[in-house]
Amino acid sequence: MSKRLAVPKTYKLYIGGAFPRSESGRTYEISSPKGVFLANAALASRKDARDAVTAARGAVKGWSGATAYNRGQVLYRVAEILEGRKAQFVDEIVAQSGVSASVAAAEVDEAIDRWVWYAGWCDKFGQVAGNGNPVAGPYFNISVPEPTGVVGIVAPQDSALVGLVSVIAPALVTGNSVVVVASQKHPLSAISLAEVLATSDVPGGVVNVLTGSPAEIAPWIASHPDVHGLDLAGAGDLDWVDLQVKAAETLTRVLPPGEPAPSLERITAFTELKTVWHTKSLV
C-alpha cells in the first residue's frame, strides 16, 4: 500500500460565516511547548477587525429576532457537534498546551457542559432578569431584557477552549453577535470551534473569530462605534484601562478582566432593559 501524503490543516479567520485569510496575508507560527511546529495561524489586521464588526452588525437583527426557544435549540446543536468532534479538540489541546490527553479531555467536557448550561438559559433568563414593576395608577409596567448588540471580546489567553466558550456562549444567549479575539498562544481550538459553528445552525456573522495579537487588534475593536459591549476577560496583560477609555468614547459598556465563570451575571452583562407601560382595563 502506497503511503499517503499528509494534508495539513490551514487555520484561517472566521468572518461572516466564511473562512478568509487575513487581508494582510500575514500568518504566525504555532508551536508545541517543546518547539515543534504545529501550524500557521492567520495574523488578523485592523481591516479584518473592521470586517468582522461589519459582519456582526449585520447579523444582530436576525439572531436577536429569533425566539428564545430557537436560540436555545441552536446553541444546544453546537454542543452536540462539539461532542461528536471531541477527539479532534483533545488532540489539538494536547499539541498546543502539552497537557495529558486526560486533562485535555476534561477541558473539552467542561466546554461542552458550559455550552449546554448556557443553551438552557435562552428561554429562562428573561423571566429572571425582567420583572413587573409596582406603579401608582391603573397601569402594567414591565421591564424586559434585550440584547445590547455587537459585543467585542478578548478571550482568555491561557485557555485553549473552555475560556473561549465561557465568553462567547453567554453573549449569544440574549441575541447579541460577537467579534472575539482568540488566545494568541492557543488559536487552533478557536478555529476548530468556528468550524463547529459554521456547520451548526448559528447564522453567519453571529460569531466572528480573529486570531493573532490581542494587543494589536483590541484597540480597534474597543474604539469602533458599532461595538456596543466589550468583554475584556482575557485582557489582563494588556493596557485594559486604555481599552476601557476608548470604549467610553462611544458609550460602550465594559466587563473588566477576570475569570469568566458561568453565571447569570455574564448573560445579563450585555443586555438593556426595555420598560413597557400598558393601561389596565377599567371594564
TrEMBL record:
Keywords noted in UniProt = Oxidoreductase
Recorded hits in Gene3D superfamilies, A to Z, give: Aldehyde Dehydrogenase, Chain A, domain 1 (3.40.605.10)
Pinpoint the Aldehyde dehydrogenase domain residues: 23-234
Q: Which InterPro entries match?
A: Ald_DH/histidinol_DH, Ald_DH_N, Aldehyde_DH_dom
Oxidoreductase listed as a keyword = yes
What is the top-level taxon of the source organism? Bacteria
Coiled coil: which residue ranges? none
Descriptive protein name: Aldehyde dehydrogenase family protein
Source species, please? Answer: Microbacterium aoyamense
